[in-house]
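Notes continue from the previous slide.

Worked example: a multi-chain complex. Inputs as given:
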Amino acid sequence: MFVTIEYFGVPRQKTGVSSDSLSFASSPTSLSDVLTEIAGRHTAFGEQCLAGNELSRETIINLNGDEFVRALDTQVVNGDHILILSTDAGG
Amino acid sequence: MSIFGYHGVYTTVDATTGSSTQTPITESTFRQFPGGAALGTHLLLKHAAWQYGPLSAEASLVFAFSPLVGSPLTTSAKFAVVSRSPLTGRLNDSLASSSFALAGKRSGNDAILITGKAASPCILVIDDQQTRKLPADHLWGLSAEDAETHLRKQFGGEHHFAVIGPAGEQQVSYATISHSGRHAGRGGSGAVLGAKNVKAVVVAGNQRTPWADTDGLVQRAKQLSKLSFGPATEKYRELGTAANLLVFNRLHCLPTRNFQRGSFANSDQFSPEALGAARGKTRSSCASCTIGCTHLYSINSRKSNQNVRIEYENIYALGPLCDVQDPDAVLQASQRCDELGIDTISTGGTIAFAMECAERGFLDEPWLRFGDAAALLKAIHLIGTGAGIGKLLRLGSRAMAGIVGHKSIEFAPQVKGLEIPGYEPRALQTMSLGFAVGTRGADHNRSGAYEIDFSDAADRRNGTADAARLAVDTEDKAAIMDSLILCKFIRGVFDNYFAETAELLNLVTGWDLDQSAMQNMARGIIDAKKEFNIRCGWTPDEDTLPRRMLTSALQDDPDARLDTQTLQTMIVAYNLKRGWTAEGYLVEIASK
């Protein structure tokens, strides 16, 4: 299956790309597996997006422009868009 | 008796005569209203400022300092300007940063209250020698920046200046008070000062307040500074708030064409990366700040020496909201707003509203069209001169709608008269509550309810009572930040917000506040703001949104739909969580 990762803000700066297209052998797969794949591609960002077994406080993830998720066991299916954002708004 | 962290006094300056009086402030008052927005609100209540028109001679305007300013704590060099707003008729508390806060506190005052009206343009000088009124005819008409340059030559480096631009002099309803390129921007405090014929307030002094635990404070300040270089502030440091634009656009919560849409065709060109690639860029920071969030971009080319400070809100209001897609035009518009001394959010909101009125045929201004960069710049010019439609634009969208008629109030982008910041209420429905109930109107700095929308605690397109109750906590945190005062950009470094801010205040004052005490303090501050508004004539029907947002979905996101019942459910939940009546009255006032 394929999922599209869209990076915004600091995640975009750290990865150096605005998006990635990732393929996985099975569908669905967990958000944790997706983030592990991302961390393998983008080391600087990978160090920051996870804090132990949790999403770091500074990272926000949105699925398909709809719901925000933090649980790493969230299931991702073929065609999903995963948006990775910097925390906080303001200004 | 001295109080650690405080002088224990405020000075009232009468602009009519130039005379001044000092009044003690007790420790018990500071324990309820520690500084900044809280102290300013308390002083306005004490002086019964609700009784007077915001632009009347009797009106009061408070510069309030704080217990933390002058300490080694990062981001603490901030001051609040508090008055009744000419734009909303309700409480207005605006904050700005840097050396004016440090010098104002060193003048020996915890606050400076200005009342009266000078017969001719003047500056008010408050330093530790004396208070005096000096003529300012030579400064009248200058931009805030140029006036500051003159004043710096006149007074030297020890004095610092809060200055109005031409818009403040002419009492434009959303005129700012400026200091060193920063603005106490929202709600028109610049017009209040201008109505008093006061071009600038000048402060200096050498009076420092002792701290209860200097070693502990220095140690904590070092920790906080270190954290301020970490990931919690990285977005502000590396990209600035403009980084929000692409995210908001992707989620359809970037207000576009006067809140008709939630996304913008040319957003990529406004990203920090694109702005920086096409033109020169520099960074700066306020005094006593280790974050350095200020990102300045040159206009037109890499070689330009005209740098403009860019935030998400001025891009949003002068770009997408007016559908202007030329980044250079938006930068020029932002620069022109700074020169005039006008709030960029209200400027963009009012012009976008006027563009829609013109397109609907409610205004005979055929040149004023969405997407027209030249029209945007012309409209700002007319706000400055007051000629033609500028006379209406100066009033803000609510008052303008009252004159235009045709039920245009239904799409005037404001709450309580204050133009809405760049958070689409239908796509961020917990934030829609924050806008509706905000004491100064639609406000992203007094409610951080968008944090709930941007989390897994809420469905951002389906507002609920549970989410509304969570929004209370974000307001409470903002009330503490605005009163201690610390910059909101540091908030992400705290693990236990109320306990840690209690610790900071305790180190300065020697008090023994804990998490619960800080939460109670926050509630008391927000109650005081509400009390001021009720005394001004607030009624529950003010806590709402423009009808457009309650009757139609976003054109580009049909799922982003909000209705009156949903908003009202959130408002009642919010009011009850605050301990108010379901309608939003303070229980003590409702029972009288």
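Summary box: The interface with chain A takes residues 231-232, 234-236, 238-244, 246-248, 250-252, 273, 293, 311-313, 423, 444-445, 448, 450-451, 454-456, 459-461, 488-489, 491-492 of chain B (CB under 8 Å). The domain at 252-419 of chain B is CATH 1.10.569.10 (Aldehyde Ferredoxin Oxidoreductase Protein, subunit A; domain 2).
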